Model the fold of this input.
Amino acid sequence: MKPIIILPTYNEALNVEKMINKIFNEVFKNQQADVLIVDSNSPDGTANIAEKLQEKYKNLHLLKQEKKLGLANAYIEGFKWALKGDYDTFIQMDCDFQHPVEILPDCIEKTKEYDLVISSRYVKDGHWSKDTNKNRTNLSCLGNIYAKTILNCPINDLTGGFNIWTKKALSSIDLDKIISKGYSFQIEMKYKCFKNNMKILEYPFTFNKREYGESKINKKIMLEALIKIWKIRFSK
Ligand SMILES: Nc1nc2c(ncn2[C@@H]2O[C@H](COP(=O)(O)OP(=O)(O)OP(=O)(O)O)[C@@H](O)[C@H]2O)c(=O)[nH]1
Ligand SMILES: [Mg+2]
Done:
């Protein structure tokens, strides 16, 4: 049994090779973890780079989606694939270095006591990197307060995408009933986990600024998330 890191990618050609090298050469040496890239047919050729890397790393897997159907769809396909494998820990992480891979061994250790470990910007010692645009941080803070209040849920970082799931927590959620398409997926998954009475820890980390490549988040995606929270609140 070992962990699997699931990396959704859309146009991450500038990041993917560096990220995979860092995971396998610096943090999980001797390939004590697997990585699954779920690529939504990125026009910049991210999947081609991943295929080349598979020649070097036998623990690197690639799911090629035919088209971009949103972050939720990519993660659901990735989770379903991983749940069929011999894994005990399922890690969600962006492929743009905003989430520090180095903290993963500590977070994985914490899954001995907790069902879900959320890497959090909104607990003591959790931060945004100082050079992040203030509008972005304010929007995230407000979004989290809004979601937390509507859902009446104690999780501070509901929107974050750096989460470490045990098999128990992930299997407690019916992935076919997830209603989110975009980034509200992160909120919906954590809320369902909370409703399923799983033991949850928020582990502090510093959210870095994206160095290479472009953000996929836009006003439409954010608006969709704000509205979806009401549907999530009343979904079964
Ligand atoms: N497979 C897949 N990956 C996606 C999709 N949309 C975003 N991603 C990936 O999901 C991760 C998070 O997306 P970002 O655009 O970095 O979102 P963010 O980190 O909230 O925003 P920034 O701070 O602006 O970077 C990245 O690894 C993206 O490449 C999608 O539709 N399909
Ligand atoms: Mg990002």
Observations:
- Residues 2-234 form a domain with the Spore Coat Polysaccharide Biosynthesis Protein SpsA; Chain A fold (CATH 3.90.550.10).
- The chain has one domain: 2-234.
- The mean pLDDT is 95.
